[in-house]
Amino acid sequence: MSRFAAFGNRLYTGETSIEIVRRQKIWYSVSAVVLLVSILALGFRGLTLGLEFTGGSEFRVTGTHTTADLPGSRAVMQVVPAATPKVAQVGRDSVRVQTDRLSDSQTEQVKETLATAYDVPVENVTASFVGPSWGKSVSKKALTGLIVFLVLVGIVIAGYFRNWKSAVSAVAALVHDLVITVGIYALVGFEVTPASVIGFLTILGYSLYDTVVVFDKVRENTHGITAQTKQTYSEAANLAVNQTLVRSINTSVVALLPVGSILFIGAFLLGAGTLKDLSLALFVGIATGTYSSVFIAPPLLADLREREPEMIALRKRVLARRQNPTAGPAPRPARGQRGPRGGSATAVLDRPLAEVDGVPGGSDPVVADDDPQPGASSDGSAAATPRAAAGRTRPARPAASGQRSQPARKKSPRPKGKKR
Q: Is 412 a domain residue?
């Protein structure tokens, strides 16, 4: 068994524990800093919207010997000096050039200059125009779909776990992941295209799946938790996070490897520029979703549940038991143990019941079973009565309600006589 597998087994059994829920302030602080940076990036830099959202002209040059962006930029600026073209490599021998909306004559001139700049025939340059209305329609539908998605997710999770606090924690983790991913897009400067929107919606489903798995384990560990005094709700939730931690790491690594290959190898090394938008959203979203499902959602759920009166009372009982652990029962006297030599059975009867039977409190009356035994003397001494000497006593029967308790009667031995 590998060390990582052995470590996972220790986490699952509770032999080793990583304090995640109890140190929630650390994770909240880290998320707060990242969220602040993301919001500032969105406010000052803003998103770089693609041609589909802003509208404009697009040129595709195929069969080029070079995919550098400098020839394309110069070719466009020769025709439109005030233009700010965006040149991107598409594959190994293709280039995509995007500009603001050009007239028909400007479009023809740009095609000729691009063909000259990249040393290809004019037939290898194609031009198209995209209006901004399409991008606005896509943005509006995406925002509507996001709101509907969050509402439905909240309702489903609240119904499944029968607790609205689980829904609040899960939705908060989703918003956390979405804001960070969009903020990183603003920092990096990647264009937001329809592929990016698809990536944003995809990471929400992945993050939600991981969170629900952790919450399901939390529910299993906290079922009937108020009936015991060994651990609090936060401690049970922390055990659940530890038990699913290895699974979350393995799932994330398996998901990040192909996405990372698309992002770093396909987009940067092979020049598949059209994949950068989708792969970046997936890569950042999966990593952020794994973090939030472990370090944000469970601690937030535990904080909300710990405010309930039942959980407050449970915490008090658990802490009180740990400070003053309950003492075990007093040791029972050994069977056959006798009092002082030559003493009678009344020496045992005169002691409190707690000393005889190990039961705390009270000194209930007890009665010895003094039935005559073979060879017993008539005075009922302990030496002649083995059962009494052995300390076998029985409690007196409690009096019925409304009746006086009668004193225990002692049986008198029958006189010995000859049989006629």
A: no
